[in-house]
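Hey all, quick one. A colleague (J.T.) asked me to put the adenine job into the tracker so the inputs and the structure tokens live in one place instead of scattered across chat threads. No bug as far as I know, just bookkeeping. Sequence used:
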Amino acid sequence: MNTDPASYICAAIRSVPDWPKPGVTFRDITPVLQNPRSFRVLIDLFVYRYIGQRLDLVAGVDARGFILGSVLAYELNLGFVPVRKKGKLPFRTVAEEYTLEYGNAAVEMHTDAVRPGQRVLLIDDLIATGGTMLAAAKLLQRLGANVVEAAAIIELPELGGAQAVKATGLPLYTVCRFN
Ligand code: PRP
Ligand code: ADE
């Protein structure tokens, strides 16, 4: 029986070779979410880490960060705010651009999503180059949030994103590392 929660979660992640293109191994969290036991263990890992940390909000990154972030916010009795891909939010927004392997992308938030000084946990499923997480953190900070920590299920150390996030002074928590 696997009794260590983190290694149980990491073992449940599916690795799909050569997707979405040759040479990339896609780390697929859908089996973790699909199984009620692993879904609960995963969310409980985050609850255990963040309960009692005087957080005000959970911010989740489009799209897989929404799945984790909204459930976690509910469990922690907190509100949830989305960090969306550009062009999806209807009200006044702020945007932050970041670099992808080919070209640029941008994430957006509503200007009233966070009040200055609010203690926010930022969550996504995976950190690769770190571009998405860093752009999301910058957006929150521009709105005056105190981003207490960034969290993800998976980090890919070879792509340097976790290092890049930590280099900005933002604490980062991840459950699994894959090379
Ligand atoms: C994936 C993943 C992270 C991001 C990580 O999202 O869910 O958000 O890439 O990559 P990075 O660290 O190099 O920025 P994707 O942009 O594929 O969007 P999706 O969640 O809508 O699939
Ligand atoms: N986002 C960026 N790189 C990824 C990977 N290898 N697996 C899943 N999502 C990703």
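Adding what we noticed when we looked at it: The beta strands are 14-17, 25-28, 57-61, 79-85, 93-99, 104-110, 119-127, 146-155, 172-177. The pocket of adenine (ligand 2) is lined by residues 24-27, 126, 128 (CB under 6 Å).
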